[in-house]
Design a protein that fits this description.
Rossmann fold, 20 helices, 22 strands, 2 domains, nine-stranded mixed sheet, alpha/beta, three-stranded parallel sheet
Amino acid sequence: MSGVGKGTTTASIGKILQCRGLKVAAMKIDPYINVDAGTMNPVEHGEVFVTPDGDETDMDIGAYERFLGGDMGKVNYMTTGRVYKTVIERERALGYGGKCVEVVPHVPLEVIDRIKKCAAETKSDVLMIEVGGTVGEYQNILFLEAARMMKHETPDDIFFALVSYVPIPPTIGEMKTKPTQYAARTVNEAGIQPDFIICRAERALDEPRKGKLAVGCGVHEEDIFSAPDAKSIYEVPVIFEDQKLGDRLLAKLKLKEKKNTFAEYRKFVTRILSVTTPVKIAVVGKYFSTGDFVLADAYHSVIEALKHAAWFHDRKAELSWINAEEVEKKGAAALLSGYDGILIPGGFGSRGVEGKIEAIRFAREEKIPYLGLCYGMQLAVVEFARHILGWKDANTTEIAPKTKHPVIHIMKHQVKNVAGGQYGGTMRLGAYECVLKKGTLAHKAYGADSAIERHRHRYEFNNAFKAKLEKAGLVCSATTPDGKLVEIIELPNHPFFLGTQAHPEFTSRPEKSQPLFREFIKAAIAKK
């Protein structure tokens, strides 16, 4: 089922192999017709993770980067839409030499070509390929067919792991294996036999259940592994390695370990699991609710970056999701008092904007450490213009196109895209360098004169108002190298008040926290 943990499992297996000295790469296949993840509702699909080369991808690409280190790119990601688009464009250019182009085999062959290209470009010993969605879904058939064809072509190089949920119905009180048996049979119908089965459950798999699965699914007991609920996703590789998954992987792959650094990783996990002193952070956003449930997947990288930064300071990030629309109704003081820090992540549109602006004002006036990301930076400029300069109508033209004080406005090269309805893949995307002003919070955080972070936006700081904003006390602490675009703003005489146009959460790693998040948490701890 969706959300069962395929991404974490893939990343964890990759981490185990990496710790054995192998070069590991990862690839995500998403079954939707969208060309990329950029145009999808974050509540439905989760965050859009931006790669350095400007691809808008699924959040699992972020998990791969955090577990494996290094950067992913366009080559690590494909969708049904992307595959079909390539096949159709090739056919239009007579790339198939006049043949009748068919769904099978030409679409699976394009999938295989992309997999081989990723393996070649990453020069990896092992390429992990995660097929999104669930077994039995119509839209996954072509990817499973590609996998079957690859196994037929090179049977000793391709191996399959089935990640399946093993429920424990509370009214029964017994772990049930039948759903996993059916999942395995469904994979069999696609011509694929799992080599491993990873069993997600609340608790570890016991021997009777493992025996049932071995018989029912045709998989050896030593190749069936438990994936019980963990205190942290970073504990999952340790749980797998304690079951000797690394040994079984190397045996199947017929590879030998070059070195073994897993003890170092285990030490890191032991340390973060022992941290208990909290630092309380309020995340004020609007992509939390889905029916009767609250999900935080829209801000997944932000959440992980906060955890990483807290661990750096031997603290545990205690996060609260504050709906910006609720701030509009109840007021910032009622909802945000008592927190050590306030963060506003990226977003789009008018819903909840006034609540975010009120939260920013509360953080500024009450001297609560504040970190604004993308939209959170833009709205901090709006708040400052309204309440320090007295421009009551100050706004972003995304919300108020006719305001007399458009302190945030659309980027010049984006006007044509918006007017023509060209939204997919047209924002300012990917990694960009900024120059840091000496003596500022930003310069101190990075400890350098420049920094590179990833971006995803159409609107920017309006330089027409820069002089007046700076005269009133706003500090523009980073710009693009040509000085044309303001990248970071901050306020002096405040414990920590900083907004960045970038998405620095994408570059945070569990063992190497991102500098701006690290300094934000440091200030939050000092306030506490």
